[in-house]
Amino acid sequence: MFRNGRYGVSNAGSVNELKSKKFGKDDNFLIDIGQHCVGKFQIHIDHVGSPMDAPLTLKIRFAEMPNEFKYNSKDYNGWLSKSWMQEELIHVDNLPVDLKLPRRYSFRYVEIRVVDTSPKWSVKFSDPRVISQSAVNKVQIPKSKFDDNELDKIYETGVNTLHDCMQDVFEDGPKRDRRLWLGDLRLQALANYASFNNTNLVKRCLYLFAGMTAEDGRISANVFTNNKYIPDDTFMYDYGLFFISTLDDLLKHEFNQEILDDLYPIAKKQWDYDQKFISDDGKVITDKDYITFVDWSQDFDKNTSAQAITIFVLKQLIDLAGMAEDSEKLKYENQLNKLVNYAENKLFDHKKGLFISGPNKEINVASQVWMVLAHVLDNEQNHALMKKTQTELFPIKGIATPYMYHHVTQALFEAGFREAGIKLMKEYWGKMISLGADTYWEAFEPEHPNFSPYGNAMVNSFCHAWSCTPVWLLNKYLN
């Protein structure tokens, strides 16, 4: 479909009609591809009228959501580079031409504006094409059947998101960053096992992290994957630990002795490095220079989340130690007991029935959720904890990402609140769909739809890896 008029607000027509339209200085049109895609764009251009007495100048902009066209890049004032904005100023000296843009874009909509021709001639456009790119094919995925049209749509949108983020690696977002992040990888891999089942891509990503560790054993939070593979100098406490989780999840899904032999020592080195942040009595001591991410929001204390994530991951390290027949398994089990005992005796407020966090004994959603996922308490207590969480801390406020909403939803399912988990998925991921999403967004606060962690929504990603997890949640808890 194409539309004449600024921001595509009028005169919709079939893309086949485009070739019958003439465009001159300051004219523009918008093409709706019909679905989100990642790839390269091309279009045929011819001139109409007198011979070309000047070059053709075009401004081409790509968008994942139509509201991106309301922004002007000149007004950008965020803290990420504005060069991530998907726009090009192009000069064409000779027509006709099949204009093939060399860069890869993440988009559904293309706006083409004729900056200038000359008064003597105009141009025609035809045959717009997208050469789509992904490591997987959606044709192989069976249609979802949850006997609920809204859940089917939520699942399919998650598959679309995952598909477009699976490139040479599991990218965090194909529009912006285009990096391999460990926290994203853990969730993408789970969704992948429940859909495309491309385990080779998971292995590739794990080996990239393992092959580029720091001298002290730390695993970088992310890897740059543009031409050369370079580990970032960013390190995060929870993301480093999630290498252990991702490896354990893979080997439980598809055991491979060679991978265990190669990567288990890397996992152990990461755990060994983190010992400096765990006291003898089992307390996790957070460090502002080695942050625990949990969520983009900085409005809640993350100390207890760090404690729970450490317990969550150590249980998986113990699994790996069992697979490897490692004699240190007993040592890990003893340390787990200390971590759990500290959580139960120092962090759980028995009067309130909730976990506290930090020096001010803050009570927040993330602390409760991660303690549920770590199964610090027994099943009956977990149920009571999430019941209390819903009563006192819902509706959720101040959580900025589908990454954290995934963990909240999973905790509801884990604690036996199936209907509440479904309701939250519909209210959160379903809300994005109702706002026009055909892939899920990087950041979304329902109470602040224009939220950006970067100071300006112009660089927000509307197709982001950590948001695809309804694919896994629905398969695990509803099938």
Q: How does this model look, in words?
A:
By secondary structure, the chain is an alpha+beta fold. The protein is built from 12 helices and 13 strands. It has helices at residues 149-165, 182-193, 199-210, 237-253, 257-273, 303-323, 329-347, 365-373, 379-393, 402-414, 418-434, 470-478, and strands spanning 2-4, 10-13, 28-49, 56-63, 87-92, 97-100, 105-116, 121-132, 180-181, 222-224, 230-231, 348-349, 354-355. Strands 1, 2, 3, 4, 5, 6, 7 and 8 form an 8-stranded antiparallel sheet that branches. The protein has a 3-stranded antiparallel sheet with strand order 9-10-11. Strands 12-13 form a two-stranded antiparallel ribbon. Helix 1 (149-165) crosses helix 11 (418-434), helix 4 (237-253) packs parallel to helix 6 (303-323) and helix 10 (402-414) packs antiparallel against helix 11. The chain is elongated. The two termini are 37 Å apart.
Broad structural category: alpha+beta
Shape: elongated
Strand content: 15-25%
Number of helices: 12
Helix content: 25-40%
Tell me the distance between the termini: 37 Å
Per DSSP E runs of 2 or more residues, the count of β-strands stands at 13
Whole-number mean pLDDT: 94
Low-confidence stretches: 5-10
Q: Order of helices and strands, N to C?
A: EEEEEEEEHEHHEEHHHHEEHHHHH
| Cα radius of gyration in angstroms | 25 Å
Q: Give a quick account of the main beta sheet: strands, pairing sense, barrel closure.
A: 8 strands, antiparallel
Compile the SSE list and pairings.
Layout: E1 2-4, E2 10-13, E3 28-49, E4 56-63, E5 87-92, E6 97-100, E7 105-116, E8 121-132, H1 149-165, E9 180-181, H2 182-193, H3 199-210, E10 222-224, E11 230-231, H4 237-253, H5 257-273, H6 303-323, H7 329-347, E12 348-349, E13 354-355, H8 365-373, H9 379-393, H10 402-414, H11 418-434, H12 470-478
Antiparallel strand pairs: 1-2, 1-3, 3-6, 3-7, 3-8, 4-5, 4-7, 9-10, 10-11, 12-13
Helix pairs in contact: 1-11, 2-3, 2-4, 2-12, 3-4, 3-5, 4-5, 4-6, 5-6, 6-7, 6-8, 8-9, 8-10, 10-11
